[in-house]
Design goal:
Number of helices: 7
Oligomer: single chain
Strand content: under 5%
Order of helices and strands: HHHHHHH
Radius of gyration: 58 Å
Number of strands: 0
Helix content: 55-70%
Length: about 220
């Protein structure tokens, strides 16, 4: 039996050879597309980028401003300014407060010894006065006995007080020298404070009261 499709090709070939060629092309197996060897596709991932490094800030913008410089105590010439200086700088210095307490103990020890010596001198004068009274009573019974002149107790006491005054002056110089070393205002002898000596001494006494309070608070 003949192939109907082959018969159809022969008929068409006779009629139109071009159509026959097109039909033959359709009959031939078409080549299939084979992509070139390639690695399997990988998942789309963005590469990890390191976090941007923060630029260091200008230290002039981030750093705390430095504290104001400690003023020269020789430039402080008023009591209010001296009180502020002591409250701000001296009160927070343990070393200075320790030195001030030692200075205070030394001063009180000196003054106590002078006072005790004066009291002992007064006691001797009193005992001597009682002894002199007994001696005078005895001499009255002896009309021919020589007269004994008692020592001048008041002069002796004045001489002692004068010596203590000189010692106090020397002690004051030593105290002022130590206060200068500790940078305490109002105690510099070469500074002109613009007030009379009486007013300056009052200022110094008030400042000393403040210093003593600070020393007492530290001990407590």
């Amino acid at each position: 039996m003949s192939d109907p499709q082959a018969d159809l090709f022969r008929v068409l070939a006779q009629l139109n050879p071009a159509i026959t060629q097109q039909l033959q092309q359709f009959q031939q197996p078409q080549p299939q597309f084979h992509p070139p060897d390639a690695p399997p596709p990988q998942s789309l991932q963005f590469p990890l980028q390191p976090p941007p490094q923060q630029q260091p800030l200008d230290p002039r913008l981030t750093a705390k401003p430095p504290p104001p410089a400690r003023p020269d105590p020789r430039t402080i010439v008023t009591l209010p300014a001296a009180n502020r200086y002591v409250s701000r700088y001296i009160a927070s210095s343990a070393e200075t407060l320790t030195a001030l307490r030692a200075l205070k103990r030394w001063q009180h020890a000196k003054e106590s010894s002078w006072y005790a010596a004066r009291q002992a001198l007064i006691k001797r004068h009193k005992e001597r006065s009682e002894s002199d009274a007994k001696l005078a009573s005895l001499l009255q019974s002896l009309t021919q006995a020589p007269t004994v002149k008692p020592p001048d107790s008041e002069k002796e006491l004045r001489d002692y007080d004068r010596s203590v005054y000189e010692k106090q002056r020397l002690m004051q110089k030593e105290i002022f020298s130590e206060m200068n070393r500790l940078q305490i205002p109002l105690f510099y002898q070469t500074v002109n404070y613009g007030v009379d000596e009486t007013t300056l001494n009052i200022w110094r006494r008030r400042l000393m009261d403040l210093l003593e309070d600070l020393c007492d608070d530290e001990v407590a």
